[in-house]
């Protein structure tokens, strides 16, 4: 898969956004890091899939609850309520991107070290339940 230059920058911005959010949570919900992570994540996502597709992704009727919670959480982080904002934002994130978890799990199972760990008998059942994936009938 070939990425354009804008998509490569988007991947970097999204990665840095996730890193800053993780760091902000690890440092006891530091509002500045969380706000910076949110800005980088959303702008990176926009660069990866494009502005029009980003708007249509967030504006779909079945994703409206997730969009409201995600954007509401970002606003709460901006007005200095980082803990409550991250809780609301996490709920919105799971509603928005929860459909991708089985795809991500399948990809991670093909990686060398992580895949071996995720394919262990008990870990496989737990990860399948968490990701919501169903075993293939084939």
UniProtKB/TrEMBL annotation:
**InterPro entries, from UniProt?**
Got1, Vesicle_transpt_Got1/SFT2
- Its family? Belongs to the GOT1 family.
Q: What is its main location?
A: Golgi
Q: Does the keyword Cell wall biogenesis/degradation apply?
A: no
Q: Where are the transmembrane segments?
A: 9-29, 35-52, 64-84
Q: Name one GO biological process term.
A: endoplasmic reticulum to Golgi vesicle-mediated transport
Q: How does it sit in the membrane?
A: Multi-pass membrane protein
Where it sits in the cell: the answer is: Golgi apparatus membrane
Q: Which GO terms describe its cellular component?
A: COPII-coated ER to Golgi transport vesicle; cytosol; endoplasmic reticulum; Golgi cis cisterna; Golgi membrane
Pfam families in UniProt? Got1
What organism is the protein native to?
Sistotremastrum niveocremeum HHB9708
Q: What is this protein called?
A: Got1-domain-containing protein
Give the matching PANTHER family: CGI-141-RELATED/LIPASE CONTAINING PROTEIN, GOLGI TRANSPORT PROTEIN 1-RELATED
